[in-house]
Amino acid sequence: MLPLIREKRTSRRGFLGLGIPGLAAWANALGASPSGKGRAKSVLVVFCGGGQSQLEMWDPKPNAPEEIRGAFSSILTRTPGVRFGEHLPMVAAQSHRFSVLRSVTHDDLDHGSACYLSLTGHFHPRKSSNPPPRPDDPPTLASLYRRIRPGGPFGFSSTHINGPLFVPDEPGPGQNGGTLGRVFDPLQVDPVNPELSLPALTFNQDLPFLRFQSRRQLLHTLDKPRQLWDSRAAVRDFNGQTEQAFELLGKPGVRDAFDLSKEPVKVRERYGKHRNGQACLLARRLVEREMPWVTVFWNPNIRGQDNFPDETDEYGWDTHNDIFEAMKVHLLPRFDQSFSALLEDLDERGLLATTLVLCLGEFGRAPLVALEPRFKGATPGRKHWAQAYSVVFAGAGVKRGAVVGATDRRAGSPVEYPVTPPDLAATLFDSLGIAPDAHFYDLLNKPQALTTGKVIHGLFS
User: 104: which strand partners?
Assistant: First the structure.
């Protein structure tokens, strides 16, 4: 068996060549530290593709000129001295449960490569571009976790809900198993029908279990003539994914876990009975069932409003023009309702203590309101801005009611505690007890860095 992971520190070189169970035991034995290492049982990432505006949400500048400040005012939060944008009243009331990190920075200015950076922890070779996915891409973080710790409540240890994210016309890179192969893709779940979130798992009740088993055996029999092809990556991926599907169908209780109709009506209404809200509710249900890694793609397209301006479900955070109408009418009301419900629900159920929550996009928006003639829309917006933007962390030892880092008077540059997307990735792995400076081995037995980032110690109590 190929070694899964290698520590840079010499004190752990004795773990080279461990199989999966040994690695998991080692990682779990690392314990907790002031950085948050090992405190989390689960990671829950809420990814807002397109780029949330820090000025309209997490880092308003009420004293700046209007062309910087924008059309919205700001409101006080439950955290003394901290203000958010005026259209986040429910999130502001939950500010005592999380920290805002206002000083994330990088220099990748297009959605495809910047999403890739955020979802893999590595810069794309074609920075500031919209490249297609490639087999030699680094694995998405959820796939890396699945490679290191494959065990989970349904045979999967990581899940993508509401994906893939279209950037804007095709699924963007950085969302699959990459160099690990598609067999390590996260479980894909579509909550578009909240009554039946995972139609592929519907088991035919008229099919006796013995017949189900015989069909599985028949598939294996038919596969035998293709064994000469098994060295091909595509065939290996297909075989692995087929086996996973049978494993899921064979496990009792899987169907119920994804059935949101099991939730009380009041709970579903608190989250919001729309795609975004039900995706967050499904994420909570999976964390409750000890799914270790869950990623929610808040929106299925970075800028779906170009083609569907009247459908809120299609809106993404790429608000070049019409930013204030888009955020006030479509984006912020749902985000305010659903994200606040997620944090409140996790905390009240005792799950936030062992769940590290991260809400982020690939970058922020420019500290200047202007009309961009190359994009649809009749009123001004904000262009891409990666030099400074905000993300939110909660749970698993993260400080409550805190602001970490700071930006200048325009929210355009960090002036305190700058961090990068690789640092975010390192912090996620560290919280799960996985050393961020480790290496994993791809399908060609080549060592690859888990992440080049550093743990953001300032987030933790």
Answer: 389, 419
For 383-402, write each residue's pLDDT tens digit. Answer: 999 999 999 999 999 999 99
Angular region, 359: left φ>0, alpha ψ -120 to 50, beta rest: beta
**What homologous superfamily is domain 5-197+271-459 in, according to CATH?**
Alkaline Phosphatase, subunit A (3.40.720.10)
Question: Which residue bears the tokens 């994914």?
Answer: 241
Amino acid 248: pLDDT: 57
Mean pLDDT of all residues in 291-310: 95
For residue 374, give both structure tokens: 């190359």
Conformational region of residue 458, where left means phi above 0, alpha means psi within -120 to 50, and beta covers everything else: alpha
- Please list the alpha-helical segments (H only) found in 351-438: 421-431
For the chain, give every domain's residue range.
5-197+271-459, 199-257
Q: What is the DSSP string of 434-452?
A: --TT-EEE-TT--EEES-S
Q: What is the SS3 assignment for 265?
A: helix
Task: Note whether 461 and 397 are within 8 A (CB).
Answer: yes
Contact 438, 450 (CB under 8 A): yes
Q: What is the DSSP letter of 171?
A: B
Write out the two tokens for 315.
């809106």
Helices (H), 34-171: 66-69, 89-92, 111-120, 141-148
Answer whether 302's CB lies under 8 Å from 165's CB: yes
Mark out the alpha helices in 29-139 (DSSP H runs).
66-69, 89-92, 111-120
Q: Which has more pLDDT, 12 or 71?
A: 71
State how far the Cα of 81 lies from the Cα of 100, in Å rounded to an integer.
13
Which DSSP string do the residues of 290-344 spell out, in sequence order? T-SEEEEES-SBTTGGGT-TT-GGG--S--SSSHHHIIIIIIHHHHHHHHHHHHH
What the block records as the tokens of 261 is: 């109709």
Render pLDDT for 5-42 as a digit per residue (tens, 0 to 9): 443 433 332 222 223 333 333 333 233 344 667 799 99
Alpha-carbon gap, residue 197 to 194, rounded angstroms: 5
pTM of structure: 0.84
Structure tokens at 73: 């005012």
